[in-house]
Write a structure and sequence with these properties.
Length: about 180
């Protein structure tokens, strides 16, 4: 969309979308999604994350399992990221969030941190960020994912979160592996 004048973007997008839908086979129409993207904002990240999620055949099972782990941990949110790109694969929110661009921001922060670790010959495995409002733990989860657990209850110990993550790894690995 960067190459289209701002005043014409919606019209051009709808024209292109209509043409795509015209040539899409009927059995794929309900599964076809078009994205307006730009290299200058979060739209490209969101589009790729959505595509990754759509490609997973058992995404509903994955989402339901994230909901269960979120509930078991009394967490506000659980997010599953693809390991190398840090695209969001799936997430579950127990609370509403004001920042709709938070996943891209988190992804960028983690990718920059991982690069810093590489420069100093350290390998990024996990991290915990705490402040007075929340605690966020990001950890390697399966062979192809990282998990982020956000809690606002300061009575929840990070060790308990970590133990629950470790206890659920094999189950989630089986779900992720069945997607490949």
């Amino acid at each position: 969309m960067d190459l289209v004048q701002e005043s014409e973007r919606e019209i051009k997008f709808q024209e292109k979308r209509s043409r795509i839908m015209e040539v899409t086979k009927p059995e794929f129409k309900s599964k076809t999604e078009c994205f307006k993207t730009s290299i200058w904002d979060e739209t490209l990240y969101k589009a790729w994350s959505t595509i990754v999620s759509i490609l997973l055949p058992n995404i509903q099972q994955l989402q339901q399992s994230l909901k269960q782990i979120c509930s078991a941990l009394n967490a506000n949110e659980v997010v599953l990221f693809e390991k190398s790109t840090f695209l969001v694969i799936s997430h579950y929110d127990a609370a509403n969030h004001e920042d709709i661009h938070r996943f891209e921001k988190i992804s960028n922060i983690i990718k920059q941190f991982k690069l810093s670790c590489i420069k100093t010959n350290y390998q990024f495995v996990s991290m915990v960020v705490k402040n007075e409002k929340f605690s966020a733990m990001i950890d390697e989860f399966t062979s192809s994912t990282y998990i982020m657990v956000i809690t606002s209850d300061h009575n929840i110990e990070q060790e308990a979160v970590s133990m629950n993550i470790k206890a659920s790894r094999d189950y989630f690995e089986s779900i992720v592996q069945s997607n490949e």
